[in-house]
Amino acid sequence: MRKRLSLILFLTFLVAPSISAFQATDWVKVAPVGGGFSVMMPGKPKEEVKPGEDFTSHLFTITTDKAIYLAAYGDYAPTIKLNVGGELVANRDNFLKALDAKLIDSKEISMDGHTGLEFTGESDQASFKSRVFLFGNRIHQIGVAVFKGKEEAANVDRFFGSFSFTKS
After folding, report:
1. Cα 29–chain centre separation
2. Number of domains in the chain
């Protein structure tokens, strides 16, 4: 269970750099119906839905010439009981392991009463910043991979600052 979203996000970060990068000029508000969140992204993201028996994921990604931005949410089957703290840590660790990245920093966060983790990591190809939240059987994750040698701090701050939970 814990590996599903991490695997999906890993594949996105692995494959996305090989896709033609572009410089987005117009930011787009992403607020999928039923997603329970909104976030601004530097262009229209690609959407990918992966249904499954016990987990269904929704992934939104866009690649620029400096970074990969992603927003994702997933729903575990109602019969699956999750330990919030353990699941958040497992998601973080599996995410970084799949990217062959080391953990730089991690801290507990809360947003609108939802428990989460914010963490940063680094690999040979990129530096990563991510926030992951879990409540009930739904997980939300946003993240950015900034390619080595690139500067993207202002846009990363804009992306993270724009994230909010909405009524599903």
Report:
1. 16
2. 1
Distance (Å, whole) CA 76 – CA 56: 7
90: CB partners within 8 A, 6+ apart:
2
Alpha carbon distances (Å) from 119 to 15, 34, 40, 96, 104:
22, 26, 20, 10, 7
Q: What is the pLDDT of residues 107-133, one digit of tens each?
A: 999 999 999 999 999 999 999 999 999
Q: What is the pTM of this model?
A: 0.85
Q: Which domain holds residue 97?
A: 2-165
- Give φ, ψ of 161 to 5 degrees: -70, -20
Residue-wise pLDDT tens digits, 84-101: 999 999 999 999 999 999
